Amino acid sequence: MMLLVDVHDPGRDPHAAEFVDLQAQGVRVRRIGRHRIAMISDDRPDLVQQVRQGWPEARFVAVQSGSPLTERDTFGESTVVQVGDVLVGGREFVVMAGPCAVEGVAELRETAAAVAGAGAQVLRGGAFKPRTSPHAFQGSGGAGLSLLARTGREFGLPVVSEVVDPRDVERMAEDVDILQVGARNAQNFSLLAEVGRSGSPVLLKRGFGCTVEEWLGAAEYILAEGNPNVILCERGIRSFDSVTRFTLDLAVVPVLKQRCHLPVVVDPSHATGHRDLVAPMALAAAAAGADGLLVDAHTRATSTKCDGPQALCADKFGRLMASLRALLPTVNRTLPSRRLQVAG
Ligand code: PEP
Ligand code: MN
Description:
This protein is α/β, with parallel strands linked by helices.
């Protein structure tokens, strides 16, 4: 077993001799939000003793699972991830919306204007698309990323986009406010460690074959690199029924809320694959206690190269936001007022 020690002393210099000494003896020390965590194997009573003497205020937590840094009991408080001036995991419900893939300038601007006008707070758009076939549209790459960043700035929205290659993390973190790790890469451990080292907010989707334990294990890879800014995203799992694209596992929302301190958002678009099912499942997610949504929206859904059948047009998106505005107070949440802040 391993002991986790929360020295919870944000005032203490991380380069202080005590920390350096512990690390020299092979102990991993990580800063997670306001906490400083030392991971000590319980077959090292000498180190345990050293910590007890050096940090009389230290709190010892016996580790019960393979992902102790994700557990609510470890910290006892919810993590709120700050993205620009948007807080994910606080009282405000956060809607992230935009096209599945970044394509042309005009449709991205139209879509950004529509979702921002309806109250979305984050603009989504894939530039590197993980497609099932290598012959399908792979995304617009670096050019798409710059376009997304520019459009986000223009409409005052932080942006989220998927990173598929560990070698792109550093460069993407300059343009993107939230790095998305997609379902197909949910257990790509070198990618997880790399986004962990970046320190940027990460939206970690559930792999469609992953149990909660495996999903939290993936989140642990990011946290273990000292990056506490992880948002979990349920996006449907594989089941026997193909009536919907995947099977949206909404019970996982309260399960995660009990077990884990990280914010949880739901993607009803990739989960269902049909635009008519997006609003009902989005509302159900809000009622189940999700902290926000990731929604495909597109003003020209019929001509998009990627996931058109699940994209909401401006009208339907606006109606969904109005329904959320009515529902959220019943679960003690709010939607922020509309923001249409066009730069320049
Ligand atoms: C996406 O959000 O663009 C995406 C590809 O989702 P997922 O990884 O959930 O399939
Ligand atoms: Mn998609």
